[in-house]
Amino acid sequence: MPEPVFQKTQVHNLGAHYEAVRALSLSLTANLSDADATAQSMPDASPAKWHLAHVTWFFETFVLRDHVPGYRSFDDRFAFLFNSYYEAEGPRHDRPRRGLLTRPSLDDVLAYRGHVDAAMYNALPLLNDGGRSLVTLGLHHEQQHQELLLTDILHLFAQNPLQPGLWPRGQRDLIAGPGPLIWHEGPSGLIEIGHKGDDFAFDCEGPRHKVHLTPYALADRPVSNGEWINFMESGGYRDPAHWLSDGWAWVQAEGVEAPLYWQPDGAGGWTRFTLSGREPVNPAEPVTHISLYEADAFASWADARLPTEAEWEAMAASRDSLTGHFLDRAGPCRPMVAGHEVGKDRRPHQMFGDVWEWTGSAYRPYPGFRAAEGAVGEYNGKFMSGQFVLRGGSCATPRGHARASYRNFFYPHQRWQFTGLRLAKDMTA
Amino acid sequence: MPEPVFQKTQVHNLGAHYEAVRALSLSLTANLSDADATAQSMPDASPAKWHLAHVTWFFETFVLRDHVPGYRSFDDRFAFLFNSYYEAEGPRHDRPRRGLLTRPSLDDVLAYRGHVDAAMYNALPLLNDGGRSLVTLGLHHEQQHQELLLTDILHLFAQNPLQPGLWPRGQRDLIAGPGPLIWHEGPSGLIEIGHKGDDFAFDCEGPRHKVHLTPYALADRPVSNGEWINFMESGGYRDPAHWLSDGWAWVQAEGVEAPLYWQPDGAGGWTRFTLSGREPVNPAEPVTHISLYEADAFASWADARLPTEAEWEAMAASRDSLTGHFLDRAGPCRPMVAGHEVGKDRRPHQMFGDVWEWTGSAYRPYPGFRAAEGAVGEYNGKFMSGQFVLRGGSCATPRGHARASYRNFFYPHQRWQFTGLRLAKDMTA
Amino acid sequence: MPEPVFQKTQVHNLGAHYEAVRALSLSLTANLSDADATAQSMPDASPAKWHLAHVTWFFETFVLRDHVPGYRSFDDRFAFLFNSYYEAEGPRHDRPRRGLLTRPSLDDVLAYRGHVDAAMYNALPLLNDGGRSLVTLGLHHEQQHQELLLTDILHLFAQNPLQPGLWPRGQRDLIAGPGPLIWHEGPSGLIEIGHKGDDFAFDCEGPRHKVHLTPYALADRPVSNGEWINFMESGGYRDPAHWLSDGWAWVQAEGVEAPLYWQPDGAGGWTRFTLSGREPVNPAEPVTHISLYEADAFASWADARLPTEAEWEAMAASRDSLTGHFLDRAGPCRPMVAGHEVGKDRRPHQMFGDVWEWTGSAYRPYPGFRAAEGAVGEYNGKFMSGQFVLRGGSCATPRGHARASYRNFFYPHQRWQFTGLRLAKDMTA
Amino acid sequence: MPEPVFQKTQVHNLGAHYEAVRALSLSLTANLSDADATAQSMPDASPAKWHLAHVTWFFETFVLRDHVPGYRSFDDRFAFLFNSYYEAEGPRHDRPRRGLLTRPSLDDVLAYRGHVDAAMYNALPLLNDGGRSLVTLGLHHEQQHQELLLTDILHLFAQNPLQPGLWPRGQRDLIAGPGPLIWHEGPSGLIEIGHKGDDFAFDCEGPRHKVHLTPYALADRPVSNGEWINFMESGGYRDPAHWLSDGWAWVQAEGVEAPLYWQPDGAGGWTRFTLSGREPVNPAEPVTHISLYEADAFASWADARLPTEAEWEAMAASRDSLTGHFLDRAGPCRPMVAGHEVGKDRRPHQMFGDVWEWTGSAYRPYPGFRAAEGAVGEYNGKFMSGQFVLRGGSCATPRGHARASYRNFFYPHQRWQFTGLRLAKDMTA
Hints:
By secondary structure, the first copy, chain A, is of the alpha+beta class. The first copy, chain A, contains nine helices and twelve strands.
């Protein structure tokens, strides 16, 4: 998951933006107990309390400490506890041991947030452009952690035999299942990708540059649970012919035979664990919680492939990244049925929201990329090995956070995010 | 740590005993937050909340379920969550994942305790002897978990960079340091050890049997921190000549160079972490939080050895196991200075309380030992490989729980209990 | 390291080619004892005996079994022992346990080679084009294993405290050290890369396709040992600012502080272990046995970057891949001093031979890539995750094996091959 | 496996003893190739070549270096390679990496043996008593390594899919299967155990001392393969009720369901791998290659227990340790059918030879035990944690090496030695 580096920033309504983002974090955690907010279910995940404090430390450090004379830190020891991975900011608590921090309590962290918010509201009118840019950066940073917070809680609750839900189950989605895949040819030849314009983007989204694409087509929608069940039933998880070598080793070592959180229902069907507890798998919804290895194997089985990130972006560039099924408020969170945008005449649909789409592109720098100076320069560039790019955002991504040029990235075995796939294929000339 | 199996039981004041033991558990955890009570700092440790629930499940299962017609369980799912290791009671939650059980909450567990306590108070007057014996067993079982609960919280808090204390620091112990060791010859020749009489004891404490002891002497008191510092400063942790082979491998692999919880104070001295936070090491106190490997190496360095459990018991048999520095109530908990019983004319002193004393005896069955039938038979016998016996109880052992025949046991590398040592030597004939 | 898939093949002199390649394998192993040829020093490496047998199994299986009616296998059990990773060819001996195969002996394996060679010489005149193509493929395959065999023996001998050499030390290279780096701008804009023409190439080298390159320059030569020592002495291995996050974790976990096989000489300098034993590091030679992580960190420290594979290939396309310092025969094997080609008016020089050059490109399929059908289709495509591309060949690569389009690949932490780097930088427009 | 410390020594025929022991080592390895003698199949095992060299290093170091003025070592680097675990003798090659020592070759090691033997034959007539005692010690030491060498080769060959045999299969044992177990009561009350007299014994066999035994009986013979199959077929490996807790964890983690080297024969029966290759399990032979955990579980399932080492020694004291099925020469090596000594009127029989018998006694020092001074003092005492005692010797133990007081020891999970069991039970008073 990228940490943000600002390039340009929104200069209007910064206070309102700050208030809205900070409030969403609190509402997402309103149903958590102190213990819920403290536990860490695996090294890849962090406690909810830690997320709440870390994003606050970010404002305290890079805005208040560096741009507000006389600011007094809430607690000098918090820098050690709540720095994530910024080597330039000094030593820090071991990531796999975040779940042992029963103190400070959730209430202490909320008080920390209050202290920093008060100082930020005082400071906002007085900040120079550099400071305002860092605030914008901090808000996009906090949005990233909102999504991580939800996926980390989902993972934690999934480990509990009581299978608790964070929110009540929402109304079920009654739209009928998707029809057969339809292929749409995308722009090819010499095109441009990468962020352009003055709006905020992370450093890794640029520089904008030319790429040459050979003719290709993308599917009109993500792969559905029903299609995934076909893959499973045809032995997809047991036939090495479809798998990357590393993926096959992972399947064997971990005993993987279905997406994360799926369990047999005892009657030949499947259930999945969600933020609203365990429920039947809906064949019409996009499949999610799959690894790159699984996505790649499915594509091979389907005689297709994953799109490259350039293909995806070329296709997505003409679409409105603010629409789609994103996170707007605390409450039931799930991908909507594949095809729910059909009829709106914007094809391929569901490119934004619902599920992050694995691409076949390794996460590497664009031509001319240079990381920013200082600690904020550690946000993206240093993660550019071993990971793959995902595009488009998910139902757990705050609306307005994703865009066509947005590059999310995870290791190919990771699948606790809302990850899915869209098929691509080569066009015969 | 042994789980108990009853043989004989106290038949008087069972209700008062029940009330006192159950109340102590609550008072020990009164300062814990929901998060404190949920976290698990290592697979060997359990969350405080889990201890509170597990001992309650013990009464609910072996007394209420099995001896009280019509009892309705508080929550049928708790058996899966709170069974520790009783294979005969069915599958259970993985031990290393106990810290992920943020639900049920601490309040839920307290309600569970209330439900079971109410049922127990109703049932106590009506139980037959078998049922009453199981109650007594359950109370000794709960006392064991009281000690574990404290040592597990100590371990958890020690991982927190904020170094929180459970209780305020008590008044420091002003008694001057101990004098030189004095050796006392113990009973030798053909003697008897093992539990006798009708009072409660665990199954592994019997049968009482004869052993032949060659002449030996025990030190009048445990080894002190000051003596341990001498060992450290003379290179004790760096010279393989003193160490068991497994111990030397452990020292090298773990980088051990001092007792658990010790850190340099930056001025050439040492601090230790306690249930009241970090404090200077008091040279007069018994050393604690050492492994069998360390105890054995120290004894070798001191040209002595560890006592066998038979030697220890033969020496302790004439002493009153109710006196000594034990746990009486919630509050500061630490070994008292070595020698604090001097002058009371009961030598060797500090055999009961202060620190568990590693013996050189592997934990194996006594001649004629047979485990009880059924689930309760799993308590002790199945742990009889790879562990060493400790004797005497500690400052965290509830008073009345230990006795001369009591056999505690841990693996030779474990040291998060209040473990120390007393030296022994052979008497030249 | 890629396994080969043929596309086109050499149709002339196939018998002579076969004879030459097979003979080189034998001469490379002539100095090995049965034990030398059997041991396996790590899971990534294979025993020399296994290499000799595996490449023979390849001919026996894909040529003799599939194209020569009536062929009788030498030993039916060898398919299980000497299949490398072809899932379609059935189960096989665990890779990390290859070193336990003391039987068949080296003599048995040589007899196996003789049996297959005899059958091959009989079969060659009769093979159809498909069969001949598989022979060519098998020869390129064997050349790959010749390089692996040497690097695996180097790794094995490096573990031996006696530090044995495979060959006597060759005459030292007396050419003076290289001068300062000189930058050469490469072809940019819309270019083509990938294999073209009828000569043999592996499937992953195509299809040939267009890529768009922004202006860049490459250094005239690989980075030298002397420059690497500067990096080390300026704290390069201890400053996280230069490192990829995964690389920094690797440096910390493995305690890396120099290239593989380097040791301090006790007088402030360095030695390196080679196929001729331990010797002083020559500052003029190209650095080798470094990981992608180290290469990337060096480039960052030098305010440069690694070339992409497209940049490298665009620059190399006009050069003769048959020249350069390659493996021609059994005997001392080492990179030649950086700059040894200077004066030959072919700049940048040393692109072919000496050391494999890490690129910044992840090993992924080219547009339109499709793996071949059947077992041979497993050779390249299934390894396309998590690895980086290297270009140009090394002093241990048989001459004629590498070419401008050749894509070698390894994981970013691996460094037992002859791996080095050449710097690149962006040209400001 | 104990390393020896001498106490008294044989003073007659030392030269003949030396010649016989040294010759047996060579004959045991006569069928091994250089590669066979170099490979190491697990960290617990050592290469045959290493055994041959290590026992030679022992004579070279403790006899020739320390007692023969002017002795010139064969190769000064061998001390680093062939020291096993004597910390006092300085650093040494990592045990798990012994299999990478392809140099020195087997021929080099044989030359080393020749060099040392020549010096020893010259020295023997001139040695003082101390030197002669060390020779005796070295011979007993070499005998221990003869057994380890065979069990290590057995383990290595068992990993090879070709399933090679070291020796041709011997004539099958035609004696009919054993009858039902017969129980024999042993000496009880106050008895003495431990070595006495002037013959050689290891330090851990003494001091001789009194122990008190409650009445018990031992079975007349070891448990047979047929009885073990009954245990397996009754679900013995799947029922935790019979197992020590550590044993049950081991069974689960390792997926153990039969003795080591056993495999189903595909027709409902079992085969076992031996030094003569794979063969059907003979129900009449003593079971072997079982762990202490398995032995203990079997005993529990059979409503019996393991004998203590004192019980075993009390029963064995009156028997002749030179008789029994021991190793006399190179050639087929296997336990003989249970009951083969029946009729010879020495009951219980098969106490010496055939299989080492696990006892229920942890390997700990006897009262008054003190390790010897210097490097030889590391032989036994430092291994006295975590291991269990085995008694009696096996078919792979050189005749004359074992005796009634002999204490062998291994960790409870280890089973690559010829380990079996004999049942014991308490006599009701």
